[in-house]
Design a protein that fits this description.
Order of helices and strands: EHEEEEEEH
Distance between the termini: 64 Å
Shape: elongated
Number of domains: 1
Oligomer: single chain
Number of strands: 7
Radius of gyration: 27 Å
Structural class: alpha+beta
Helix content: 25-40%
């Protein structure tokens, strides 16, 4: 995982390319979550494993990664309330890339997000595994080179310990 970066998440969102209907805000009923897993035993927000983000509109340290923002639209009393969802990436350099934007009033609203979330998680797992294999290969090569250098050093030290013809 990357180191946290100092960013105004809402401002970074507003700077993302595209024309978005709204943006993350901390108004009552709205929320934003850093997503790092899926639990398909649920079809709503409980299927998204992660931590909620409280500092959306001020400069704060945020973890680069996959985020989901939810904003309530319409009035509940008037029966026209929908929720607007944004799935987006916060890059390590502070820029935001919007992956998906959609409205839903369904209780199973999270299901349409699963393919993008799974793809992101798979990519992260694969890139971490690839990097792990690269590091293991490099360590093995360095350990081999180190053993060769130690053997060469041992030969040199043995040569120094042998008495010369003059010493005999």
């Amino acid at each position: 995982m990357s180191n946290p970066i100092l960013v105004n998440l809402r401002q970074a969102f507003l700077n993302a390319p595209g024309f978005w209907e709204s943006s993350p805000s901390s108004r009552k009923g709205n929320w934003c979550k850093l997503v790092y897993g899926l639990d398909k035993n649920h079809t709503d927000g409980y299927s998204l494993e992660g931590s909620f983000v409280s500092q959306l509109e001020e400069l704060a340290y945020q973890q680069p990664g996959l985020y989901l923002s939810c904003e309530q639209k319409g009035r509940k009393k008037q029966g026209n309330q929908q929720r607007l969802y944004y799935l987006f990436l916060l890059e390590a350099h502070g820029e935001v890339t919007i992956l998906k934007e959609f409205k839903s009033a369904s209780k199973e609203w999270a299901v349409p997000l699963w393919p993008e979330i799974e793809a992101y998680l798979h990519q992260q797992t694969n890139s971490a595994e690839i990097r792990r294999q690269e590091l293991l290969t490099k360590i093995q090569a360095l350990e081999f080179e180190l053993s060769q250098l130690r053997a060469e050093l041992a030969v040199l030290e043995m040569d120094q310990l042998k008495p010369t013809e003059e010493e005999l």
